[in-house]
Amino acid sequence: MRLRFHRSLDDLNEKLLVMAGMAEQAIQRAVEAYRVRDLSICDLVDRGEVAINRIEREIDQMALDLLAMEQPMAIDLRFTLAVIKINADLERVGDSARNISDRVRDLQRLPQVEVPVDIPRMGSLATGMVRKSIQAFIEADADMAESVLTMDDNVDKLNSLAHTSVLAMMKEKPEFASQALHVLMIARSLERVADHATNVAEDVIFWVRGADVRHHVREADSAVAGESISPN
Length: 232
Prior knowledge:
The chain is an all-alpha fold. Helices cover 80% and strands 0% of the residues.
């Protein structure tokens, strides 16, 4: 029974990594669609979101089946709970990519204008956070996961700068307010992607250390959920 349980854990792990790759690709495609204004890439994002939603349901069912199979030990229980939470955040990354592609479509219907927001830069940072948080999960590396938490500040600063720039543009060129707002919403979606990557990193720390670090509460100040056990 334990051997079958651990094989199921491995299958769950592999399925989540597939999900992570799809979510990361979705954001990359959405940002590229904005950069080159290519609606065919938006179509790829939309089809990808359908696949992401499907695999999210599969992962949740696999995790629930595991929990029902037997009473897992503390580290296995934390792993399974972390997978369920990470799965939800990755699905929302896919939602954010779809939101960006929708905004790109809206922009295509309007006269093109330069909006002073560095969307490619924000996209690169947010995607990098997703990639690093998943790498931390793969390697069971809580220190790497902690580094993702600090990366979020850079995306937040760019998002704040985007608000300032867009408001200034709307005052100077009110005829381009629609375009500016669409770009601002794209920046907001990327900021949300960074938040989801942060959540993933926090879940990795919970799994590895048994420590709740949500809201950037450090291990020394958080309640430890059971004995700290190495996943290796």
